[in-house]
């Protein structure tokens, strides 16, 4: 963002200058079109975001939002929703067009800047979530001091400020040849990748992995000694946070050393999956969310049924059966 403010536009930034070729030439030189895979990614992203909307509304319901973990889950859900738009919906569209940075510089630069900040914020939010659940099970008095009532909002300021900080670091840049987002826009053939390297992003990924492992250490003991508690919320928190570990390491490794293309594509699919997985984790492991979700779906179906039947003509020559829809 600071680069855009300094030079007035993405095109004016020296390291991101695409004046050497036209957009079509850049696509032929550096990109690859993925019509089917791109369409699948876009469809996946749209499906996830559609399913996420009613789940977010359930989490935001007054009775649920009183709980500190639901406040954290709500922020994490919003972040997942936004990341899915970039790493699945937008990425699929760019893949279908065989796009690289220089074919859509403004869209890719700004999207890469935002999604990098969102990813890092999601790492901290996920860590905060599992810490909240762990303290709730092992040190309830400490959990109350840190997260009771409006105190949770203070805790949520940290991932939000974290997001703002990463907006001013080097962005991730999409390349359709590898179907993934990198530090370098791959404009120059003579390397120069070190000049694009995002040290803060790398530190975030490895720091989160280390801290998460430390927090995970007492998990087995906690689960074994607290079976009387509602472990579903705790388990879903664990699964959400554990998925972040896998992607964090792979994405850094592929940006610092040459790796096979299938590993790069696998890393990106993992990134897509971990932000879509909460939808299925909530529906599978959280009974309350699952039941409320089904209620909402039944209400929608019921509304559609009533609207359809109200538009049907009435035959006055025959008796009419009255159907009561609950």
Automatic annotation (TrEMBL):
InterPro entries tied to this protein: 7TM_GPCR_serpentine_rcpt_Srt
Coiled-coil stretches noted in the UniProt entry, renumbered to this chain: none
SUPFAM superfamilies tied to this protein: Family A G protein-coupled receptor-like (SSF81321)
Transmembrane segments: 36-60, 72-95, 107-131, 152-174, 206-223, 235-256, 262-285
Pfam family, any one: 7TM_GPCR_Srt
This protein's UniProt keywords: Membrane, Transmembrane, Transmembrane helix
PANTHER family: SERPENTINE RECEPTOR, CLASS T
Protein name (database record): Serpentine Receptor, class T
Organism: Caenorhabditis tropicalis
